[in-house]
Amino acid sequence: MFTINDMPRQIDDHIIDELGRTCVSTLGHLRDHGFALGLQPNRRPLKFVGTAVTVRIPHLDSTAVHIAVDMLRPGDVLVVDQSGDQQRSCFGGLVSYTAKARGAAGAVIDGAVNDYDETLAYDFPVISRGFSPLTTRIGGIEGAINVPVSVAGAVVRPGDVVFADSDGAAFLTPEEAVGLGDLLKSKEDAEIPAREKISAGGLLAEFSGAAKHLP
Ligand SMILES: O=C([O-])CC(=O)C(=O)O
Ligand SMILES: [Mg+2]
Known about the structure:
The chain is of the alpha/beta class and 215 residues long. It is 31% helix and 26% strand.
């Protein structure tokens, strides 16, 4: 059975701008859930923030991926749950070409990707389990578009904010993302004077608080 829900509301531009100026790992200093654990970028440096368009497929059948890619809008991020199959690739050169042509910001795939060189040539950012020549097929078995999905240890809902850089991807509800960019930026800015102090002989452990735990 195929489920195709409406496309989600896109996240506000100012959230994209704010988060685009910060690092995903700064969020990793603050919370422990909502990260795509074990996924790697197809190139570095990499940075994108966009609206999650979610797809769930059974391990062999990427029919729903091909349908969803045609639906992408500028700023969307394709997020694919392969039902736990991390080996096969549902995302190759023609799929990435289509995503790029639609103006998508990137893709997060909880499975492998193929046509690595072609996707790189399109300069399309993808975060995935890795690379594989073994692909999915167009089987017409089942699939779901714009449903809650499970991606590398995180729950992702259609319309969530996908926040990705060279370190990996995090997912936030649009409500959680309000004001978050400013908070992350202020944490990052606090490291500027710390670097000056460290150059002058100051201790990292003083800045981080680790020194408080010295025996
Ligand atoms: O068609 C697929 O599913 C994967 C692929 O090789 C491509 O996108 O070029
Ligand atoms: Mg191909």
